[in-house]
Design brief:
The complex is a heterodimer of chains A (241) and B (520). With 241 residues, chain A is mainly alpha-helical. Chain A has a two-stranded antiparallel sheet with strand order 1-2. Chain B is an alpha/beta fold and 520 residues long. Classes of the chains: A mainly alpha (241), B alpha/beta (520).
Chain lengths: 241, 520
């Protein structure tokens, strides 16, 4: 998941997650538009610090901006309200619905930016290791999760093959969910077998809970300072804007 | 030392035990080769020795077994042994389990990586490695456990010839380590029998024969072994020079029959075809004409673009420049419906090409007008009658492969594209598939097949194409290819044993007297 080595990537993943979750909590605790905007700006600064080039950033955020516009439009035109501003056919925009639309859409965008920042700057292995050390995640669960991550590229390849095979054999489903089942059934049967195999292989390598760690994330002073800054900043934005 | 006394293992859902009253002692430092038909209990035996039963793998186990020292096990599927994302972390997983201090890990990781001949950065993602490299990494992970006993379950079965060779070299090196006890299941008998100390022959959960390789694979026993369905080494106990002619005929070392010239009627016609995958050019200006009834085999190293060429011919990938024609009609002008009645594709993983819930349905939708008589014939012909009502996904590896070929051949195709159809299959299934394909070929179907099996190329191909760095580097008959030592070397290809034997015989004939064969 991690794609660069920005300063953000150096922070302990659990600390980073805590900071982001705190900002998200503040976001859902407020219904004031100004506060939401201020926190959105904070999130945007976060994304800009995540070490992506502007062009990549633009491309990655494209789908979300479409989602933003859609949410905004839906909330604005179909929301409840008294003071009518504009009507056309089924669409009816009121002052209240407009404010509401702004609120929900910006909140959503802020959530997206925060999550993207986290995903872009966090290495999966280090994140899980940090969860073991800082959040006491059970070891068996953690290593199981890491093993599961390896299935994602394998799934992608398998789905490609199944689609090709369906094309060669000229098989089309009448209902869309049939396609879903036709693709997922072989995928699941093969992955059950594979996960069994992987579990056996892990046991054969003497997997145990009492172990040492190759990657052992610790919480440094820098991490704590980061947490403190974000929490103070976000709290003051929430209280004083 | 390992010892088993009256070991019996039965899986919960089965009526008969997989291992039945088995008693055997394996000494320290000994290298033992296990052979036997599939389902004879070899893998289960290794699982017991690895201490995986009954805790990890559920089964009823009775009897006594002891193993002295730590045990490491290497499995068949390179991909199904890893739980981390990068090379370094994966080897570290073994070290973590042994509770090695963190400061020591880096050095130890580098030592085992060097030992298996992998020169990789520790942050290399495992997903980027080839099958052969993955398997060597898996071996490195097992070696990081510093095992006294090493169990290997068909470690080369899923690798290409180059990967197989490197892996066998590593295994032989381990055999020379006096502290390591090796127990291996392996179908690459040719190489194994030269260094194994002992061979155990398994049949229906029991050890039928036990002795040194020279004894087990001696001449009077080969008939017995063949009857059990056990492959025997092609040369052993002879060498290329000392092989008697009558044994050579028995072991299929003969020159393949002379092929009749194929028709001149073209099927596929490619002119300057270029295919890109993202920004990378996979195929560059490929020109090729295939004829009806011709059996073309595509060989080359991993990533040379063999599968890409097949997918392009099957209209599954777009062409950037150049033209592909089938029966003088451009591929773009063919309607999908009509095109796929002419062209079939057998994928490398059969389970992903099945569409129906039962074997019978699967065959039925492959026929334009299925009748019950025709279905029965097909079931008999492909030996699927016993499993007609089962789900295709529940079949054995060989049955899946036969079904996938059957679905493509029930309707006569003009061209059949095959991506390594014999890969990882046992000798019996391979022979059946080749037989069916030969019939299709005789009926006028063009076969274009990707393979790594050079023996198959020599025995069956009308024409062989070597694909390397996006180009066709060789196009001609197998015999011509085997004389091009440079092309073979550059593309990591090997001459098959039967060809080398023929060469040897030729040499003797020309010289007029037998060659002196060096004894070591």
């Amino acid at each position: 998941m991690q794609e660069n080595h920005s300063w953000f990537a150096q922070i302990n993943p659990s600390v980073k997650l805590a900071a982001l979750l705190y900002v998200m909590l503040l976001l859902i605790s407020t219904s004031r538009l100004q506060v939401t905007f201020a926190l959105l700006v904070l999130a945007a600064v976060g994304v800009c610090c995540s070490g992506w080039q502007l062009s990549t950033l633009f491309l990655r955020l494209m789908p979300y901006s479409v989602l933003f516009l859609l949410t905004f439009w839906m909330m604005a035109t179909f929301g409840k309200g008294e003071t009518e501003l504009w009507t056309f056919g089924w669409f009816r925009i009121t002052e209240e619905s407009l404010t509401h639309a702004w609120l929900v859409a910006t909140r959503m965008l802020a959530f997206v930016l925060l999550s993207v920042t986290f995903v872009a700057t966090t290495d999966a292995t280090r994140f899980v290791m940090s969860l073991i050390h800082q959040c006491r995640l059970p070891v068996r669960l953690a290593y199981g999760f890491l093993a599961g991550l390896r299935f994602i590229p394998i799934f992608r390849q398998s789905i490609r093959t199944i689609r090709q095979a369906r094309r060669v054999r000229q098989q089309r489903s009448f209902w869309p969910w049939q396609t879903f089942f036709d693709i997922s059934l072989p995928l699941f049967t093969t992955s059950i077998l594979r996960s069994e195999q992987i579990a056996i292989a892990m046991e054969a390598r003497q997997f145990r809970v009492n172990r040492t760690y190759y990657v052992e994330p610790v919480v440094t002073r820098g991490d704590l300072a980061f947490l403190l800054i974000i929490v103070t900043l976000a709290t003051s934005l929430r209280l004083f804007v | 030392m390992m010892q088993c006394e009256h070991l019996t293992v039965r899986y919960p859902d089965q009526d008969y035990p997989v291992l039945h009253d088995l008693s055997v002692t394996i000494d320290k430092g000994e290298t033992t080769l296990l052979v036997g038909p599939s389902g004879s209990g070899k893998t289960t035996f290794l699982h017991v020795l690895a201490g995986l039963m009954p805790e990890t793998i559920e089964a009823d186990v009775s009897g006594e077994w002891t193993t002295d020292g730590t045990v490491g096990m290497l499995f068949q599927q390179p991909d199904d042994q890893f739980c981390m994302q990068t090379v370094g972390a994966e080897i570290a997983f073994s070290l973590e389990n042994r509770q090695i201090a963190r400061g020591e890990m880096e050095d130890r990781i580098r030592i085992v990586l060097t030992r298996v001949g992998l020169d990789l950065a520790l942050t290399t993602p495992i997903a980027e490695l080839s099958g052969g490299m993955k398997q060597r990494l898996a071996l490195a992970c097992v070696l990081a456990l510093e095992p006294d006993i090493l169990l290997l379950d068909e470690p080369t079965a899923q690798l290409d010839p180059h990967g197989q060779q490197l892996m066998m070299e590593l295994i032989e090196e381990l055999h020379h380590d006096p502290d390591v006890t090796l127990v291996l299941i392996e179908h690459q008998l040719e190489r194994c029998v030269t260094f194994a100390d002992r061979v155990l022959v398994f049949q229906t959960g029991q050890i039928r024969l036990d002795g040194p390789p020279r004894d087990i694979f001696s001449e009077h026993r080969t008939v017995f072994l063949t009857k059990l369905g056990i492959a025997i080494p092609r040369l052993y106990p002879y060498t290329l020079g000392t092989m008697p002619a009558e044994v050579a005929a028995e072991r299929e070392l003969d020159r393949p029959p002379v092929r009749e010239p194929v028709s001149t009627e073209p099927t596929f016609d490619l002119v300057d075809v270029t295919v890109r995958y993202g920004k990378q050019t996979v195929l560059e200006r490929i020109s090729l004409t295939a004829h009806a009834g011709e059996w073309i085999m595509l060989v080359g190293r991993n990533g040379a673009g063999k599968s890409t060429l097949l997918e392009t011919l099957a209209k599954l990938l777009p062409v950037q420049s150049g033209t592909i024609q089938l029966f003088q009609t451009d591929l773009k002008k063919w309607r999908d419906r009509m095109f796929y009645r002419q062209v079939g594709f057998v994928f490398q993983q059969p389970e992903f090409q099945f569409l129906k819930q039962t074997v019978l349905d699967e065959l039925a939708i492959s026929c334009p007008s299925p009748s019950s008589g025709q279905m029965n014939d097909a079931l008999q012909h492909y030996r699927l009658a016993d499993v007609a009502a089962q789900s295709p996904l529940a079949l054995s590896l060989g049955q899946k492969r036969r079904l996938s070929v059957a679905t493509m051949l029930l309707e006569r195709k003009a061209v059949l594209l095959l991506d390594e159809p014999t890969f990882g299959q046992d000798a019996e299934t391979t022979a059946q598939i080749i037989d069916v394909l030969r019939q299709a070929c005789a009926a006028g179907t063009t076969l274009i097949m990707v393979t790594h099996d050079m023996e198959l190329v020599y025995q069956q191909a009308d024409r062989v194409l070597v694909l390397g760095s996006g180009n066709i580097q060789f196009d001609g008959s197998p015999e011509e290819l085997f004389q091009e030592t440079e092309i073979l070397r550059d593309n990591q290809l090997f001459c098959p044993v039967s060809y080398r034997y023929q060469q040897q015989k030729e040499g003797i004939r020309h010289a007029g007297k037998p060659f002196m064969v060096r004894s070591n």
